[in-house]
Amino acid sequence: MPVALRPLTLDDTDAVHAWARLPESCRYQVWGPNTYEQTQEYMRAAVAAPPDRLVFAVLVEGEVLGSAELKLHGPSTGEIAYAAHPRVWGQGIATAAARELLRMGFHEHGRHRIFGTCDPRNLASAAVLRKIGMRYEGRMRGTAYIRDGWRDSDLYAILVDD
Fold it and tell me: Average pLDDT, whole number, for the chain?
């Protein structure tokens, strides 16, 4: 399914909250389920983010159905993250958004290495990272505290010439 990325704006708050409030959306995340105020706080921070944190709305047929981020670490590394509304899970939206983040990171921002992480239980997110060409590099133990306790993070990465 074709997607487009554009900078996230405060006008996207209701669309983002439509999935940020859902337990299934944040099952493997340190955030959520969000109250509307928590989503507003995230949106204000995302819109005012420094230039090394690029936050995008993921548009499908003009509707905001996800978000995507490219964080620039130093002169050569980038990190990607993405989220999609559960009603469009399994339709290739996160994969398309992640591919676009890679394109931006490598071609617009001159990154040498881009990585992404996910909870080891999040098989769908791991599949996205593999689909876009990232390689599994290992498991980092106890990286984030979520509702059911400390969780590990699986690390995936790709180099510009992979």
Answer: 96
